[in-house]
Write a structure and sequence with these properties.
The complex is a heterodimer of chains A (363) and B (318).
Chain A (H helix, E strand, L loop, with lengths): L1 E6 L10 H20 L4 H13 L2 H26 L7 H18 L6 H30 L3 H21 L24 E3 L2 E2 L1 H18 L1 H11 L1 H6 L4 H28 L10 H11 L4 H25 L5 H16 L1 H4 E6 L1 H11 L1
Antiparallel strand pairs in A: 1-4, 2-3
Chain B lengths: L2 H30 L7 H19 L2 H25 L4 H22 L18 E2 L9 H5 L1 E2 L1 H19 L1 H11 L1 H6 L4 H27 L11 H11 L4 H24 L5 H24 L21
Antiparallel strand pairs in B: 1-2
Helix pairs in contact in B: 1-9, 1-10, 1-11, 2-3, 2-4, 2-9, 2-10, 3-4, 3-9, 6-7, 10-11, 10-12, 11-12
Classes of the chains: A mainly alpha (363), B mainly alpha (318).
């Protein structure tokens, strides 16, 4: 008798939630073990996290605020991942969007009407993020330069550019040494829907609809999926892969760019160090957990937002490092990745006699 | 340029380059076997934290290295289980290791100081520089190459050993073959899965020593984000080296040199803002990648192992 993996005949069409839910549960257990090793009571810790992120209207709203940049960057990352273009540069693309929006809010006050300020910031944010995504796309499509490394290196460059600006030439002269730019004028604030939840949420919903439409109904969407599934077949059927990479990365970077715009205009209302706190990396987890589905991205972003807020609460209430949330994210991803084999293979326990039979069936 | 200044640049070049080279060797070994490990950064930073904590609490830098190796084995094992046994997507599996490792490191950095406090600013046991008699008297080379710590001297020995293993032994031939054509290796009756497991874990151990050298040798202490993308630079160096360990030495010296220049300029008080100075290694990585991809394009192939990233499935051979 032995255990064998048999390839499923219909790997598509599996939309059940078993794997994500089991993965999440196993990750909680795995993480609990780690917490015990470090002398932390996991039940107490999880209770704090749950209450702090979902337990009250205020907590829920904070979770949603955290989810907005995750939704936008998650959508951006997922469309690139669809064609196996590994954009891990959402963090940098978000930072550039934030820089561009801050530029308009700080330096174009005299040259554009207040009513046009927010639209300008949105457009500049999209453009800046898209350009930051375009560079690795061009390098990949023209020369074949590894995009994982270029997108990642460009994160560091973007983050250091933000730092240079708010510590250097853009620093608030009246800020008493506060490391950040001056506050934006009020007409450059992204309005709130309710509480601290700002219009970035609407951008995310529009983005999800847009991506869904593109993937489902357009030629571009069809080509993206084909390239992701079988690049060779895509090339033979005459699809221009390079052109698709460029278009997809403009979209992907643009979405992250709006996330950056929404963060500076909706939350901090200035450019400072709190802009780049790792949303772009969490976006990778969001995209993968959502199985690259736009609606899934919205839901998973909310859950990951809850995890991050829960981590912050852990720090406040139990003086336990908020990094627990990140460890947990990594663990969830481990189990999701491991579990994904059951999407493609069936686990079969085969005895000696049965073996020949099943093999005959699968020939 | 005076001699002392020049030597100080060389010393930092070697010290910064050593950690990069350990990590690059680890990545080359792993990728040669056909498995992509994008978890280098995570393995390095987790090992840097674990090794510093272990060295601090047990009072020995060697115990720190031992703890780092254990960390490397465990994280390498997770990656191997995911990518080899469960045939998971290799790019995302590596990213998962990096996210997990960075979280773990950040957690331990804030928690494993005395009385559950931060480790930032602590001084613990570390690898001190040991001058080698006679050799140190060689002008320039002596004081820069032969006045270093033990982990660096071990690395000097590893360089020829790894070259010999890769190109002159049967095991090395198997390693190179399993990344190129696992079907053929399998047909010879060699266990592909076992080979890949072994080299993924050995590779991760190299990466963990790279992390230990950061917190116990080069920087001698713990700081948040201590690796600062060095794991990713190591992956770029693999491409730069065209998977050849000797060329990796060149790459590590190049990037160690960039670090040294950055360090010296900061110390000399340049007018250039530090943010720009800190961009240097990342900009250089992109430029080097463009250059190497462009030049190697004319030689038709980059030296990428053909089966890199592709799970080996025996049943599908028809």
């Amino acid at each position: 008798m032995r255990i064998q993996l048999i390839k499923k005949t219909n790997p598509k069409g599996i939309t059940n939630l078993t794997i994500p839910i089991v993965s999440f549960a196993l990750a909680l257990l795995f993480n609990a073990l780690l917490l015990i090793i470090f002398g932390i009571n996991p039940i107490q810790a999880y209770t704090v996290m749950l209450k702090g992120s979902l337990g009250s209207p205020y907590a829920l709203s904070e979770t949603l605020v955290k989810a907005i940049p995750l939704m936008l960057t998650g959508l951006g990352v997922s469309i690139a991942f669809h064609m196996h273009f590994w954009n891990i540069g959402a963090e940098g693309q978000l930072a550039m969007g934030g820089i561009a929006a801050a530029f308009a809010a700080l330096f174009l006050q005299d040259s554009i009407a207040p009513a046009l300020m927010l639209p300008t910031m949105i457009i500049l944010g999209i453009i800046a993020g898209a350009i930051w995504g375009l560079i690795p796309a061009i390098l990949k499509s023209s020369l074949g330069v590894n995009e994982i490394l270029t997108t990642l290196m460009m994160n560091y460059i973007a983050i250091l550019t933000v730092e240079y600006l708010y510590l250097g030439p853009w620093r608030d002269p009246q800020g008493y040494g506060f490391p950040g730019t001056a506050k934006f004028p009020e007409y450059a604030w992204l309005p709130a829907i309710t509480g601290r939840i700002h219009y970035g949420l609407i951008f995310a919903l529009i983005g999800a609809v847009l991506l869904w439409l593109i993937l489902k109904f357009t030629k571009l969407g069809y080509e993206i999926r084909l390239i992701g599934e079988n690049p060779k077949a895509a090339r033979y059927s005459g699809i221009n892969i390079g052109r698709n990479i460029v278009i997809v990365m403009l979209l992907s970077g643009g979405l992250a760019g709006i996330a950056g715009m929404a963060e500076v205009a909706g939350i901090s209302r200035r450019l400072y160090t709190g802009l780049t706190v790792g949303y772009g990396y969490t976006a990778i987890i969001v995209a993968w957990l959502a199985n690259l589905n736009p609606w899934g991205v919205l839901i998973v972003s909310f859950l990951m937002g809850a995890l991050l807020i829960g981590g912050d609460q852990l720090q406040v209430a139990m003086q336990t490092p908020a990094a627990v949330a990140q460890i947990l994210q990594g663990a969830i991803l481990f189990f999701m990745l491991g579990g994904s084999i059951f999407n493609r293979y069936k686990l079969m326990i085969i005895s000696g006699k049965q073996k020949e039979k099943t093999e005959a069936e699968h020939e | 340029m005076n001699e002392a200044f020049f030597i100080s640049i060389l010393v930092i070049t070697i010290r910064a380059g050593a950690s990069l080279l350990y990590a690059t060797f680890g990545a080359i070994i792993t990728e040669r076997s056909g498995i992509q490990n994008l978890g280098v950064e995570g393995i390095m930073i987790a090992s840097a934290a674990v090794s510093f904590a272990a060295a601090f609490h047990f009072g020995s830098a060697w115990i720190g290295v031992g703890a780092a190796i254990l960390t490397g084995v465990l994280l390498g094992l997770i990656l191997a289980l995911l990518t080899i046994t469960l045939r998971a997507e290799q790019v995302v599996s590596g990213l998962a290791i990096t996210i997990f490792g960075s979280g773990l490191a950040s957690f331990m950095g804030q928690r494993l100081g005395p009385g559950s406090t931060t480790m930032v600013g602590l001084q613990g046991p570390s690898f001190q520089r040991i001058p080698i008699p006679y050799l140190i008297e060689i002008p320039y080379i002596g004081p820069s190459l032969f006045n270093q710590d033990l982990l660096i001297y071990i690395l000097y020995l590893i360089i020829p050993i790894i070259w010999f293993y890769f190109y002159k032994t049967r095991k090395g031939l198997e390693l190179r073959a399993v990344g190129e054509n696992p079907q053929a290796v399998d047909a010879l009756g060699i266990n592909v899965t076992r080979l890949r497991f072994t080299y993924t874990i050995i590779g991760a151990v190299f990466m963990s020593i790279a992390g230990a050298h950061l917190s116990l040798g080069y920087l001698q202490g713990w700081a948040d984000n201590i690796t600062g993308g060095r794991g990713w630079i190591a992956i770029a160096l693999v491409i730069f080296s065209t998977w050849n360990p000797l060329r990796a030495v060149l790459g590590a010296i190049l990037f160690g040199g960039i670090n040294a220049i950055q360090f010296r300029m900061q110390a000399a008080g340049t007018t250039l803002p530090s943010s720009f100075l800190n961009m240097l290694p990342y900009l250089a990585t992109i430029l080097v990648l463009i250059f190497i991809t462009w030049t190697e394009k004319f030689r038709k192939r980059l030296g990428t192992p053909t089966a890199l990233g592709i799970p080996f499935v025996r049943e599908e051979k028809r």
